[in-house]
Amino acid sequence: MGDAHCRPPGTPDAAVEAAGRFSEALERLERARGALYDFHQLVGRADAMLDDVVASLEALGRDRLAAEVRDRLVGRNVLQGRWTFQVVEEFDDGYYALFRELEKRTRQELVGGRRHVYEAEMKQRRRTAGHPGHEAAPGT
Asked: What is the pTM of this model?
């Protein structure tokens, strides 16, 4: 494997483990961020579907109910003062940005900025050298 995943000389196990745990936590946060974007798109689509609901209610002569759905629900904030795009932006610009910044700084200080050092060492321990599908890196 190349130097990009090798432990810098003199780096203790605890540093590799701490950097690895922080990176794993970031991976979990990335999954949560994906779920937040799913939420954003699902709520947006549900709101857009209400146009058809209102039209159907009007066609049924249920004008008061149609008006209530249109006036009270269509375009309503999902949180105080916020549509989902604002929730996503606040998350991205605040918690998510700080999390990524500190994870990167931790890797920089503990393992020279290298990514996945812990996993690369695990791969070396678990692979069977010389067997197909167990190569250390592509093309080796």
From this structure: 0.86
How far is the CA of 114 from the CAs of 45, 53, 96, 110, in angstroms? 40, 53, 20, 9
In angstroms, the CA 60 to CA 36 distance is 36
Query: Could you tell me if 54 and 63 are in contact, meaning their C-beta atoms sit under 8 angstroms apart?
Result: no
- Which residue, among 10, 3, 98, has the nearest Cα to 106 in the 3D structure? 98
Helix (H/G/I), strand (E/B), else coil: 92: helix
pLDDT digits (tens, 9 = 90+) for 67-117: 999 999 999 999 999 999 999 999 999 999 999 999 999 999 999 999 999
Residue 68 neighbours by CB distance under 10 Å: 13
